[in-house]
Amino acid sequence: DLWLWRRRAEGMPRVTWRGEGTLPANMAEETALPLMFLLLFLLTRRRADLEHSNLGRRNDARRRLRIRQYLQQRQRKMILMVMAHGNCSSNCRTRIWCKPRSSDWWERVVLDEFQPNDWLENFRMSKETFFHVCNKLKPMVSRRNTHLRPALPLEKRVAVAFWRLATNVEYRTISHLFGIGRSTVCKCVREVCHAIVSLLKPLYLSLPSNEGFEMTAQRFGRKWNFPQCVGVIDSCHIPISAPPQCHRDFLNGKGWHSVVLQGVVDDTGKFWDVCTGSSGSSLDAKILRNSDLWTTATERRLFPDCSKNIIGTPVNYLLIGSSSYPLQEWLLKPYSEMEALTPHQLVFNYTLSQAHAIIDGTFGRLKARWQCLLKRNDCSLELIPTMITACCILHNVCERHNDGFNSEWLDVLGQEEFPQPNQTGSDRTVDSQAEEIREALSVYFMGLQER
């Protein structure tokens, strides 16, 4: 058809082919030539399009690379400018929304000029013990510096918390003293108390070992002639602000709001078990039954089996408590004075009261050293049990490291605004085995008196 179209264009007469056959060779070449030119044109145009597209992509890549290099160079210049400005102006870069505060008292006075007596008076422990505690608390209390400002030093964070525990002054006063914000003071107190309970409790306030129980029983026997005794249990009310909810539950017998600290101490006045957080209206027996100590003792996992024969009665390790506690074979209490007592029962009550006095002195030293337990505590109800436990642990730390105790601190106990309520009720739970043990000990004490 193409050949015929060209013949018409040239004015040649139309030639009609009939029958089968092929065109002559010269006519076939003329027919293929336009197709070759068309194909060559299409290939050339396609190649030009590809080269143009590749050139555009290369130009875009070069442009993006130039922009990236420019931004990186600008960022490096800005960082160098900030660093140079920081080095020129101050080594301590603070955020622009922070008020300028002075930490001169801590850095110059406390760290450089405080004498041993100053450390004991203000932080309730020696300087060596203070830095020992800081080293133990480092995994949970230490913070890293940021580009915005340096972190508060570990020692300063611990000192803020100890100042609050020792004095119970308001956060505003501590804020001005240490040159930090009030919210920072609150955060330091919370974090340090939680760290003390988590890291120091296994080291300083835990169940004694078998050897520890044996040595404690020997010392109780030498000091008060009370065999097999390894601890004294009692409770202490800690003043708090009235909680917004269920505040009546926290009213104790004296009419003020409190939470109860149940503690067990050894013959040296160190705690080896505490239970905190119960409301002030709770009875001692109820607090004991809700504690882990009761569960462990009733399951016979509290003391090792180390019975001693006394007047024909096997007596294992035991605790002594007031009349408000239930009488158990592992917990003895005095005979009720509501009834007429025999001479040997009176001797038993006297001996028990002499040994029981150790915990009264321990509570006094605890509150005199950490006066947040003596005054009304306005911290949140969720933090107070942790704070009380932390104070008991720090008490053990100071006692174990033989840090001094200023007897003048005890003067605040005579000015106590919140006198301890008296437990008038007596738990009348009767345990026959416990009665036998108490009777055997009363006869034993009577024999000692007659010698």
Task: Please describe the structure with a list of short key phrases separated by commas or semicolons.
5-stranded mixed sheet, 55% helix, 15 helices, single chain, 9% strand, two-stranded antiparallel ribbon
Describe what you observe in this structure.
The chain is an alpha/beta fold and about 450 residues long. It is built from 15 helices and 7 strands. The chain has helices at about 1-10, 25-90, 105-115, 115-125, 125-140, 155-165, 170-180, 180-205, 210-225, 285-290, 290-300, 345-370, 385-400, 410-415, 430-450; strands at about 230-240, 260-265, 270-280, 310, 315, 320, 330. Strands 3-2-1-6-7 form a 5-stranded mixed sheet. Strands 4-5 form a two-stranded antiparallel sheet. The longest helix is centred in the first third of the chain and has 65 residues, at about 25-90. The termini are far apart. Residues about 1-5 and about 10-20 have low confidence and may be disordered.
What general form does the structure show?
elongated
The amount of beta strand, in percent, is: 5-15%
Question: Sheet bearing the most strands, described?
Answer: 5 strands, mixed
In sequence order, what are the helices and strands, one letter per element? HHHHHHHHHEEEHHEEEEHHHH
Number of helices: 15
- What is the C-alpha radius of gyration, as a whole number of Å? 43 Å
